[in-house]
Specification:
alpha/beta, nine-stranded mixed sheet
Length: 308
Amino acid sequence: MPGLYLHIPFCRRACTYCDFHFSTSLGTKDRVLKAMARELEERAPGFDHGPLTSIYFGGGTPSLLEPRELEALLDRVRRPFTVDPEAEVTLEANPDDITAGRLAAWRQLGITRLSLGTQSFREDRLRFMGRAHTAPDALRSIDLIANAGFRSWTIDLIYGLPGMDRAEWDEQLTIALDHGMPHLSAYCLTVEPRTALAHQVANGTVVPATDTDTAAQFDRLMDRMEAAGFLHYEISNFGLPGHLAVHNRSYWTGAPYLGIGPSAHSFDGRTRRWNVAHNVRYAQGVEEGARYWEEETPSPLERTNEML
């Protein structure tokens, strides 16, 4: 199940908890996209593992791109690669980017699955996390996606928030289930170094949830998803039958995947490679033919431990 990951390193604003590589400036966007197209062309000959079964636009915020920019990247993918006719093509999107027109354009481009960065249906929680969308945006976008004809879609929710209790978490899950989601990615809030949240915790303005609380919320998540008929197929992912993400599963089964763009990771079945997490240094490396990545070859024991 070879897969392709394309990292779009741009966001409208910085979420307080996020430590993924991104920039809130679009000043390097054209340069980065050109570099990604070139990286695709240069690395395709060395990634010969059969037809691609999944393509994943992650970030960052891929839904920030104009449809024509996504189309150009997909065209670059289809030139050197054979793409399985039934390939899963996922686009991460934020609720504030969702319109009927954009959904139609994405479907026409061949996007088959959307991953919606909802995170919460509560206004106070969205503000705490620094999200750009509102609670009404989240509900409106889900309704639009559910009726847009995509093969599948998923939403993200975060638990383990400061002060969150069982009633609040139950409410979040109920809203999601009532809106007919076929897949859920549920993540426990973690305090990552060098984030705004880490600074808030360090200066005492935010008190993290206790391990006891987060464990109870995870247990409740498991109970609710099982009762609703969802399969727990990966640590943070739950899907109805027929909606388990191909791309998610490939990471856990050791399938080869190619990562394109700043900070993107790759695995060819033996060696792991990761690109520099810096937009300018990445683009410059591609342009000049200089090394812009690091790599390692894990031992069989290390790979076994990772799988466990």
